Amino acid sequence: MDQAGPNFFSGPYIDRRAEAREEATWLDAALADPATLYMVGKGTTQLVRTQPEPRIEFLTPEHPLVREARPEELVLLGWFRGVRCVLIQLEGDRAVSVPEGASFEELRPLSPVLRGDEAGLLAYARALAIWRARQRFCGVCGRATVPERAGHVIRCTNEVCQHEFFPRLDPAIIVLVTDGERALLGRQATWPARRYSTIAGFVEPGESLEDAVAREVEEETSVKVTGVRYHSSQPWPFPSSIMIGFHATAEPGSPVRVTGELEAASWFTREDIESGAALVPPSHAISYRLIAAWLKGAR
What is the CB neighbour count within 10 angstroms for residue 114? Predict the structure, then answer.
């Protein structure tokens, strides 16, 4: 059930070359390079081609969308498959002409069928787009802001303020709790029938990751955990999270009492999961990897 390699949306899919963002001539260099690839975002949607298989619709420098793009709409993402890659981020309500067969689509429903490296690139671009859209005005003085450093920094235009804003992520823990032979899984009311997943929640200010694991599990299921162990992490741009995955243990026979966001929660054996009594999340989710790692453990 488990697979090797990094979690979906992560891994070495791009060479970010952050030092290139500091070059004042980065945009001139990108526009002068005929090999530069451009991907296009509009609001939270991104330009893709869905047939015969989903893939990013990269544009070349001669395309009208590239020639007409304003400097403030361009973001240097890095080098993808060895080639410079620039994001053109458009307003969500802007009407544009796109290549035949391509369309603006949301990333989430396409994620399971995209190539891993392209899914990672789209997730990266989507997270930056959402951050930029939310930072149009200074949170200190309220003045309009402008992008700098190849689109990775936003600065207040007020000469007295000039506060700089950097991309931010919302850290969230996600944990598979076991008591040795059983795993604690919960479900939300909106999920498909029999779909269960691991326990998750956002980290609060002044809280360690381990403390957040213990608090979230107890808040949602009343189960107390110990032995919190880090597993892996996953970018999750819906809208701007980093999922930090753990395994934890609970006392055998710990009773479950659902509170908070969950419709139900219960203990499941490996046989319950493997038989389909509890349907696990899609394979591109870190929750799947957490469950899969436990299923492969010693019986």
Answer: 22
Amino acid in position 240: S
Containing 86, the helix (H) or strand (E) segment is strand 83-90
Q: 170-295: which CATH topology? A: Nucleoside Triphosphate Pyrophosphohydrolase (3.90.79)
Residue 5, sorted as left (phi over 0), alpha (psi -120 to 50) or beta, turns out to be left
Q: Which of 103, 53, 65, 60 is CA-nearest to residue 85? A: 60
The pLDDT tens digits of the residues spanning 136-168 come to 999 999 999 999 999 999 999 999 999 999 999
C-alpha R_g of the chain = 22
Secondary structure (3-state) at 286: helix
Closest CA to 155 of 165, 167, 140: 165
Are 263 and 185 in contact by the 8 Å Cβ rule? The answer is: no
Q: Check if 18-134 and 170-295 are the same fold.
A: yes
Distance between CA atoms of residues 38 and 19, nearest Å: 20
Element (H, E) at 53: none
Any idea where the domains of the chain sit in the sequence? 18-134, 170-295
| Residue type at position 215 | R
Amino acid letter, residue 20:
A
pLDDT, one tens digit per residue, over 48-62 is: 999 999 999 999 999
Beta bridge partners of 225: 250
Q: What are phi and psi of 187, to 5 degrees?
A: -140, 150
Closest listed residue to residue 129, CA positions, set 55, 49, 46, 59: 46
Position 259 scores a pLDDT of 82
> Under CATH, what is the fold of the domain 18-134?
Nucleoside Triphosphate Pyrophosphohydrolase (3.90.79)
Dist. CA 144–CA 138, nearest whole Å:
6
CA atoms of 107 and 44, how far apart (whole Å): 8
- Tracing tokens 């303020």 back to the chain, one arrives at 161
